[in-house]
Amino acid sequence: LTPASKLGTPTMGGIVIFVSFLVSVFLWGKLSNYFLRTALFAAFWFTALGFCDDYLKSVRGSSDAGMSRGVKLIFQALFAIILAHLVLSTGLFNIPEEIKTALFIPFFKNPVFDLSYFYYLFIIFVVVGISNSINFADGLDGLAIVPTSMVALVYAIFAYILSNSKLAEYFLFPYIAGSEELVIVLAALIGAMAAFLWFNTYPAEVFMGDTGSLMLGGIIATTAILLKKEIIFLIAGGVFVMEFMSVFLQDYIGIKLLKRRIFYRAPIHHSFRFLGIAEPKIVVRFWIIAVIFTLISLISIKLR
Prior knowledge:
The model has no long low-confidence stretch (mean pLDDT 90). It contains twelve helices and two strands. The longest helix has 27 residues, at 34-60. It is mainly α. It has helices at 14-28, 34-60, 69-89, 119-137, 145-163, 165-170, 181-200, 209-226, 233-236, 238-258, 268-274, 279-302, and strands at residues 102-103, 113-114.
């Protein structure tokens, strides 16, 4: 629930992030590049989905009166299916055929196994999981922005390495030509988030809402899939994994199975707030944890 002190704060600030992101990409991106085009497609898709949810909440006058969870999951899964089809059935991307359905695990040099026909299900899980986990974390002023920026930085570094044949060979990664444009996409996203954070630090002057959080999650998920680095999100996005798991444990294990709460509130950051810890202290501590996860994920580039 939104605290009384925050009632009346404008929402849908994600539109500002979206517009800033688009301007930067159009200025510096190579629009003929299909990696970049796909990231833009993800940005439009998830911004529209989040906007519809925020709009319904605004019109109906309740934060619980937006789109149903099922409808949002359907649209997220539909995007995942389209993305999986583009990767597998078209020649738009320069992902080597032998690794298109392969699963790479951090700290291992070679693919662990081939997903084969389960690739579509895996991509649905990745898109739904990443986009919703970032959405869950958007509950305190500035909480989601910095960890998302850290994740974007990790994927930007991976995109630069994978798009450079010499660096890819040196670090024993598959060379993915054209993926360098994702560096532009992620840099633009980091810049847009930094500008928004200026107004979103405690006390926030505007909330990004689902318009922003779903867009951020959609772009990150798309980037992870195109770079074949889906699993690294479990480390780089450790904060979001914690948030996602707290909701899963609370709703499906605690309330539905055990008929009791595991946490005082979920996502987990609300439990800390109700313990009496000041909101800025919770947020900064989550930022510190995000930085630690970022460093661990970057170590995996060399330590394999």
